[in-house]
Amino acid sequence: MSRTVKLTQVILAVIAVGLVVALFTGGLVRGQSRDEPASPSTTGPVTPSAPADGARMPGVPEVPVADHALLPAEDDANADRQLDYTPSGEPSVEFEDSLGDLTSYATQVVDWEACQDSDIGAQCATILAPLDWEDPSGPAVEIAVRRVPDGDSSRGPLFVNPGGPGYGGQSMAENLAGRWQNYDTVGWDPRGTGESTHVVCGDLEQTDAIMNLDASPDDDAEIKALKNGGKDFAEQCRDASGDLLDHITTVDVARDLDLLRHLLGAEKLNYVGVSYGTFVGATYAELFPDTVGRLVLDAAVDITGSDDAPAQVEGFELALTNFTAWCAHSDLCDLGDDQDAINDRIAGFLAGLDEQPLTVGDRKLTQSLAATGIALFLYEDDTAYRTLAEVIAQGFTGDGTNLLWAADVMNGRGDDTYETIAFAFPAMACADAQDDGADAVMGDWKDTFKKAPIMAPNMGTSYTCQFWTADSAPQLKLTAKGAPTILVVGTTGDSATPYEQAQTMAEQLDSGVLLTLDGAGHGAVTGDNSCIAEHVDAYLYDGAAPDEGTVCR
């Protein structure tokens, strides 16, 4: 996700979905031999100690947020946002009563219980954080957290975040449990997501109406419809979510994370974040360099704010090109043996859906939904190529069932409702990043066609942030000055967060060191590459970062 959102894609979707698929299908949890059997940490009520005299309070940055350096300001940023929109009725999102002051939040009772949906001994708790960190006397939000003890738990908590924005982290804790010995793996649902106080927008019918809009408009009528859809969606989210939309920035999430660190008894934050999770980690390191432990930031987002930063759709195009190159030379793919011809065939198929969508039950597989479905498989490495070839071949024959299913996974659509991610993703993205206004949307979108000639025209664009009802956060320049070594990991063929972003993140962070995987797929640390695992283990266990320029294959 770029800091200045040009929003050249329609997907109100999950940057982390490919990672989630990988967690279940990629065989990532190698684990390590344990010297001791897993022994659960303390369960039941725990009351943390207050910070020592003179120490900063958890969640309070060493330097006030307003005093941090900013990226260069955009002219007329967020010019068309509906900041004066008045909600209709009472929001359905409700808040908790304040605990009173920051000391009360830092010493709140954490009541750990066995997670009812876990069969590996995970423990669950809910903590409270101020809705507005600058006004702790106001309402509070709930933060759901889950930990899985390992070995003797001597290394303390290792926090994990799967990205998004908008995806909860509890399942990631379960899936990574046991991977790093004697670390308790801890995942939390950031505010706005999952089982925490989360964003709510429209119902199934309302959200379907927006998802089914022609996201690749060909005329003024279709552009107008897409604009109106962006306005409607923004208003539905404000009507249902109320003031929550004003307090779900990554700065808020990082401050919550610092509170969690304290409540779980860790002097330093040890952390593995993937995709948008790298933005959470980098923001934490900017605000709290004194409590940074070992941070692994994998599949980095752009933190430079540069107009030259690659668009996400360029990553999808690269991944599609890698797929069609494989397809042309593999006996496992029946789409043809000439890469250019395969590319043309896919492009023609997607473009044809603009006029004639495929019927799937009582629904339609549109041009943008089909492209979004293809994108789901491009999050994975080449192990997903055979399945993608079969799904595309089905589409060619008029069967869009599996492409629509994949698009639904990307968009968070269930059988009778949309999951929170469908709403939390755009809400958090718009809260973090500036936009250039509605007039820039079509031009910005078409500017991506040259570098992404298949995916960009067909995935389409949107006016989601342009008509949002909340302003964006200050655009902090993230350098993490004073933090110890931070390990940044990038994959050369990453589909969702282009490799160049890992390079620029490692350069901009004062203590960033880049580790490269020469391969495909979104994210490397949660995969099974032994070279990556060796370097990450050495860093998390001993603080030993790889030499600058290290490449794994």
Total beta strands: 15
Structural class: alpha/beta
Number of helices: 17
Mean pLDDT: 92
Enumerate the strands of the largest sheet in spatial order, edge to edge or round the barrel.
Answer: 2-3-4-5-7-6-8-9-13-14-15
InterPro entries: AB_hydrolase_fold, Pept_S33_TAP-like_C, Serine_prot/Carboxylest_S33
Region (Disordered): 31-61
Protein name: Alpha/beta hydrolase
GO molecular function: hydrolase activity
Mind explaining what this structure looks like?
The protein has helices at 17-25, 102-106, 170-176, 204-211, 220-241, 250-263, 276-287, 312-328, 339-352, 367-378, 385-396, 401-411, 421-432, 441-447, 455-459, 499-508, 530-542; strands spanning 4-5, 44-46, 110-114, 123-130, 140-148, 156-161, 183-189, 269-274, 292-298, 358-360, 363-365, 434-435, 486-493, 512-520, 550-552. By secondary structure, it is an alpha/beta fold. The strands form 3 sheets. An 11-stranded mixed beta sheet has the order 2-3-4-5-7-6-8-9-13-14-15, sandwiched between helices. Strands 1-12 form a two-stranded parallel ribbon. The longest helix has 22 residues, at 220-241. One of its GO terms (molecular function) is hydrolase activity.
